[in-house]
Write a structure and sequence with these properties.
Helix 5 packs antiparallel against helix 6 and helix 14 packs parallel to helix 17. The protein has 3 domains: 137 residues, Growth Hormone, Chain: A, CATH 1.20.1250.20; 57 residues; 182 residues, MFS general substrate transporter like domains (Growth Hormone, Chain: A, Up-down Bundle), CATH 1.20.1250. The chain is globular. Helix content is 68%, strand content 0%. It is mostly helical and 453 residues long.
């Protein structure tokens, strides 16, 4: 123990062999976090740090309940403008929080406001491109999400202040009020709402920008084709099965088992994906660099998903990526700490790469496993169930107090179980999207399903 009456220099006489319980902490003066601002250093206060992430995930869970409805009712661009602006305002107020409880409240509000921004932007982007370019467009947009994560890491490393970081991240959100001046509304959404005049304006504007000639006759033909297609699909859905989705699921053991396994895969994806991201800051080395590196590996993962799902199939890609992620997380426990300083980090990054591939694949796979009449509702159910994983993942650092390797062991176990369970799914590569429950039950059994269109 350091004597109280010490000078500016330290020597052997400055210390005694008396042990006394610590009553204060000395923090890094160049870094400002909620931990040092409100002294959340003792083990009894650790839950206050992990609760911040859980509140954010709960906010996303609540926000997603309304995001889809608002986007479908009032438009993708309208929702993007409203949600991004409100999130910007909420985030800026958040940065001026006067106590921990105010931080929690605005962590919830920030996430609630921003919950559907990515999905709305994703849908708007996909609806703007041709069918053959949608997979590439979705890959590029996923990479933009990762770019945001990398930028967040760089800004956090540069600013070293949680208040300044919130202001830098959320302030640009206020510029979203100008979005209507920059990007058009989704033409497909406008057509579905019968807003013909706005569609005509957008097509003429697109024609002028691309030096093309678009006549009123061409626009009318396009609209008629879309109306006919939507009408045919709508009538088909009614003819196929008029029962409620829950009744259809309960009457098909194949679909029910598939839904339960799919839901577990979604929970595992969010739990491991966000858990590895959050726990990276507690890994050996610089926490900012670790966070950035774990985010960087997502970029090649998205492009690998693009290639693997169309080359070897959906099932091998999903099951293999789950199993490999679990193996890499387990393998970290057996790397000697002094033998190779970067070995554990490389395995950690490999685990994150594999779970990112699984995360990307599950979106495509889920849509292809269920029939047209149930596709949206069951995909939504799996997505909502998956949020359980993101709510629980911020609590995993608490497990490290019991045993440092316990979070990684839990990630590994869940990944391996999900990888084995996903083997029950049928392969959907090259198969026509099922329209009925019967067709979905017989995916892979009946060659007459034909080629997917």
């Amino acid at each position: 123990m350091l004597k109280d009456n010490h000078s500016d220099t330290c020597s052997k006489t400055s210390f005694t062999n008396v042990t006394r319980e610590c009553d204060s902490w000395v923090y890094n003066p160049y870094e400002h976090t909620i931990l040092d601002e409100w002294n959340f250093t003792c083990d009894a206060n650790r839950w206050k740090l992990t609760l911040v992430g859980t509140m954010q995930s709960i906010g996303q869970f609540i926000g997603l309940m309304f995001a889809g409805y608002i986007s479908d009712r009032y438009g993708r661009r309208t929702f993007l403008t409203l949600a991004t602006s409100l999130a910007g305002v909420s985030g800026l107020i958040h940065s001026f929080s006067v106590n921990y409880w105010m931080v929690l409240v605005f962590e919830f509000l920030d996430a609630t406001m921003a919950a559907g921004i990515y999905s709305a932007g994703f849908i708007l982007g996909v609806e703007m491109v041709k069918v053959k370019n949608r997979l590439l467009a979705s890959t590029i947009m996923c990479c933009m999400f990762t770019t945001g994560e990398i930028m967040l890491g760089f800004f956090a490393s540069w600013l070293r202040s949680w208040r300044m970081l919130l202001r830098v991240v959320y302030a640009p959100g206020l510029l979203a009020i100008f979005l209507p001046l920059v990007i058009p509304e989704s033409v497909r959404w406008l057509l579905s709402k019968g807003k013909d005049d706005e569609v005509k304006k957008i097509y003429h504007k697109m024609a002028r920008m691309n030096n093309l000639q678009v006549t009123d006759e061409a626009i009318n033909i396009f609209k008629e084709l879309n109306v006919a297609e939507n009408k045919t699909k709508s009538e088909l859905a009614i003819e196929l099965d008029e029962r409620k989705p829950i009744v259809q699921v309960l009457h098909s053991s194949v679909i029910l088992i598939r839904l339960l396994v799919c839901s577990f895969c979604w929970v595992t994806n969010t739990f491991v994906f966000y858990g590895l991201s959050l726990n990276s800051v507690a890994f050996a080395g610089d926490k900012y660099i670790n966070f950035i590196l774990v985010a960087v590996v997502e970029v090649p993962a998205f492009f690998l998903t693009w290639l693997l799902t169309d080359c070897i199939g959906r099932k091998p890609t999903l099951s293999g990526s789950f199993l490999l992620s679990g193996i890499f997380c387990f393998a970290i426990q057996f790397v000697p700490s002094g033998a190779w300083s970067y070995g554990s980090l490389l395995l950690y990054m490999a685990g994150k790469l594999c779970i990112t591939i699984a995360f990307s694949t599950i979106y495509i796979y889920t849509a292809e496993l269920f029939p047209t009449t149930l596709r949206h509702s069951l995909l939504g159910f799996c997505s909502m169930t998956g949020r359980i994983g993101s709510i629980l993942s911020p609590q995993t650092p608490l497990l490290a107090q019991i045993m440092p390797s316990l979070p990684l062991i839990l990630f590994a176990l869940m990944s391996i179980i999900a990888g084995l369970l996903s083997l029950i799914f049928p392969e959907t590569l090259g198969m026509k999207l099922p329209d009925t429950v019967w067709q979905a039950e017989n995916i892979g059994r009946d060659k007459s399903n034909g080629t997917r269109t």
